[in-house]
Write a structure and sequence with these properties.
single chain; alpha/beta; Rossmann fold; 10 helices; 36% helix; 15% strand; globular
C-alpha cells in the first residue's frame, strides 16, 4: 500500500464527518415524536392475544395515507424495544425532516417464540396471517397493499423477518435484518450440543425429540432452497464484523444469491451484537424500507463506502 501513513486519517475523517452528518440529518426536531399506543391484537393464531406497541406518526390520523412497518424485536426484547432504545425518536426525526414518509410502526411481543409455530405460540402464522389485517382494520390508511408494507428485525427478529420474506412473500413488499440470528437448524446438529441452557431455550419451541423436531422446518437454508426467487421481496441485511452471528448470515447471503435472490448486504467494521451499533445502522435501513417514496436520502452509519464497501453490495467477496 502506498503512503500508508495518510490512509488512516483519510478514512477516519470521512467516518467522522459522515457520522456527524447522519446525526444532524436524522435526529428528531424539537417537539417531534411518535405517539405510542399499547394494544392487544387478536386473530386465529393469537391465542389470548398478542401485546403490541403501535407507533403513530406525529399529527397522523386514521384514514390518511401512511406506510405500514412491522418491527420484530431481539430475543430478550419486548414490544416496547423499538421505542425504549431510541428508534422511535430516530424515525420521528426522519419523518419530520422529510427523509422518510409517514410510517405506522407496529411491534408485537414475541419473546421466547423465535417467530415459530409451536405449542408455545403460533407466532409465525400470527405475523403472516393475522397481524397485518388487524392493524389495517384498526388504522385505515396505513399499508393497504404489499408494496406499502415492510418487515424488519434485529437478532432473533431479523431471523423472523427473513423467514417472513422467504416463506410468506405475499405479505410484505420489503424486508430487512440487522445482525440476524442465523445458523443451520437440525435435530442432529442440536443434539451434539444439548446443554441445559439450550434445552431450556430451544426445546419448548423446536421440539424435545427427533420425532417432534421443528428445527428442520424452520431452517432458513432449507427455506431459501424452497423459495420462489421471483416472489421474494427486496432484502437488506447488515451484519457486524465483531458479531459472532455474522458467519451464519454470510453463509445465508451466499445461499440467497446462489438461488438468484437479490440481497443488499454488507458487513459493518467493528460492529458487535448490541443496541449501540444497531441504532447507528438503523437510518439507512429505514431508508431502504421506504425507498422510492417521497423524501430525501438519509445517511446512517459512517458511510460504508468510506471503509471500502458500498451500500449496494458486499464489503468483501463471498463464496
Amino acid at each position: 500500500m502506498s503512503r500508508p501513513g495518510r490512509r488512516l486519517p483519510s478514512v477516519m475523517g470521512r467516518w467522522f464527518l459522515t457520522g456527524a452528518a447522519a446525526l444532524l440529518a436524522c435526529q428528531p426536531a424539537a417537539g417531534a415524536g411518535m405517539r405510542a399506543v399499547r394494544v392487544v391484537l387478536h386473530g386465529a393464531h393469537a391465542g389470548a392475544g398478542v401485546p403490541t406497541e403501535v407507533l403513530l406518526p406525529a399529527g397522523w390520523r386514521p384514514g390518511e395515507p401512511a406506510l405500514l412497518m412491522v418491527f420484530l424485536h431481539d430475543g430478550w426484547g419486548s414490544e416496547t424495544s423499538f421505542r425504549r432504545h431510541g428508534l422511535a425518536d430516530l424515525a420521528a426525526g426522519m419523518m419530520e425532516g422529510g427523509a422518510i414518509p409517514a410510517v405506522v410502526i407496529a411491534s408485537p411481543r414475541h419473546r421466547g417464540t423465535f417467530i415459530v409455530d409451536s405449542p408455545r405460540a403460533e407466532m409465525e402464522s400470527f405475523v403472516a396471517d393475522d397481524l397485518v389485517p388487524e392493524l389495517e382494520r384498526r388504522y385505515p390508511g396505513a399499508g393497504g397493499s404489499r408494496a406499502r408494507r415492510s418487515v424488519w428485525g434485529i437478532s432473533m427478529g431479523g431471523y423472523g423477518a427473513l423467514k417472513m420474506a422467504l416463506r410468506h412473500p405475499e405479505v410484505f413488499g420489503r424486508a430487512a435484518a440487522l445482525a440476524p440470528w442465523v445458523q443451520p437448524l437440525a435435530w442432529d446438529r442440536y443434539e451434539k450440543d444439548r446443554t441445559w441452557w439450550r434445552r431450556r431455550l430451544l426445546e419448548p419451541v423446536f421440539g424435545r425429540s427427533r420425532a417432534e423436531s421443528r428445527f428442520e422446518a424452520n431452517d432458513l437454508f432449507r427455506i431459501v432452497a424452497a423459495a420462489d426467487p421471483g416472489r421474494v421481496p427486496p432484502l437488506y441485511v447488515r451484519t457486524g464484523s465483531a458479531d459472532k452471528w455474522e458467519p451464519g448470515a454470510e453463509d445465508l447471503i451466499a445461499a440467497l444469491r446462489a438461488r438468484g435472490i437479490a440481497v443488499d448486504a454488507a458487513s459493518i467494521p467493528g460492529a458487535r451484537h448490541r443496541w449501540a451499533d444497531w441504532r447507528r445502522a438503523a437510518p439507512a435501513l429505514l431508508e431502504f424500507l421506504t425507498r422510492d417514496r417521497p423524501g430525501r436520502a438519509c445517511v446512517s452509519w459512517p458511510d460504508e463506502a468510506a471503509a471500502g464497501g458500498s451500500r449496494g453490495g458486499d464489503r468483501r467477496p463471498r463464496p
